[in-house]
Automatic annotation (TrEMBL):
One of its GO terms (cellular component) is nucleus. Residues 1-59 are annotated as: Disordered. It comes from the Eukaryota. Keywords: DNA-binding, Nucleus, Transcription, Transcription regulation. Residues 65-115 form the Transcriptional coactivator p15 (PC4) C-terminal domain. Pfam families: PC4 (PF02229). Its main location: nucleus. InterPro entries: PC4_C, ssDNA-bd_transcriptional_reg, Sub1/Tcp4-like. This is Transcriptional coactivator p15 (PC4) C-terminal domain-containing protein. The lineage of its organism: Eukaryota, Fungi, Fungi incertae sedis, Chytridiomycota, Chytridiomycota incertae sedis. GO terms for molecular function: DNA binding; transcription coactivator activity. The keyword DNA-binding applies.
Length: 124
């Protein structure tokens, strides 16, 4: 093996290096945009079941069914739906956020549920 050449070019002085600002990756940028789009609710749910309407941080009214379950009317593409959904408390921000667990009922499905509610209650 040959000897290694001694050169001063191998040494880089800290003063010669330009500072590089950290760049966001596409994935990080997409996550921050998605987080900004999602609705944030900061209203603490009551510990007991409640039938009164409560307003969230973005003025959406909802009814607490239990500590983690809510019912609310939402609009999607001009059509109103009843949204029954389970929520969780975000550890980082303390906001209540929706989970995948839930159901959305359109007007006719809600009417059918109203017609059969007495039978459902009798089954308990």
């Amino acid at each position: 093996m040959g000897k290694r050449k001694d050169t001063n070019d191998d040494f880089i002085d800290d003063n010669d290096v330009e500072e590089v600002s950290p760049k966001k990756t596409a994935k990080t940028a997409a996550k921050s945009k998605a987080a900004a789009k999602k609705t944030k609710t900061t209203e603490e749910p009551a510990t007991e079941s409640s039938t009164t309407a409560t307003a969230s941080a973005n003025d959406e009214k909802f009814h607490l069914l239990s500590e983690k379950k809510r019912a609310q009317v939402q609009e999607f593409k001009g059509v109103k739906f009843v949204n029954l959904r389970e929520y969780y408390k975000d550890k980082d921000t303390g906001d209540w956020k929706p989970t995948k667990k839930g159901i959305t009922l359109n007007k006719s499905e809600l009417e059918n549920l109203k017609k059969s509610i007495d039978d459902l209650i009798a089954g308990f």
